[in-house]
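A quick aside before the break. I want you to see a complete sequence-to-structure record at least once, exactly as it would be stored in a machine-readable document. Don't worry about memorizing anything.
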Amino acid sequence: MNIQVAVLCDAATEDNGKLNLLGSFDTIFAPQLPAVHPQCAVALRVTFMSGDEGEHKLKLNFVNADGHAIMPPIEIPVSVVLPDDVHFLTRNFIVNIQQLKFAEEGLYSVDVRLDEVSQAGIPLSVKHMPPAEAA
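That is the input. The structure line, written in tokens, reads:
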């Protein structure tokens, strides 16, 4: 397995095997804490080889800097079957997340695992940026 793309973005779509990304980011500027990010997506583009055939479990876990989950993990069953005439198979995975809550500013990440083995991490920084006071 090879992860070609692992990103946090405003939105993602798939069109005939193409992964389309809108607004990839790694920092959220929160005007107040706790903060709620209204909507985002985790987008993955993964290539599987012949040795990857079989049933697998893709798991996304959004964690804080201490490794504690900030939301329930997302588990996706993945069945990999390569046709006889191909050497690899590429799949796109898009997970939309709404109302993502951050109790405090700091570092976070999305841990991407296949069969409980970490494959990638998507870093995210949350910064508290209160609105400027009017003069």
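Two observations worth writing down. The chain has no helices and nine strands. The two ends are 56 Å apart (CA to CA). We'll return to this after the break.
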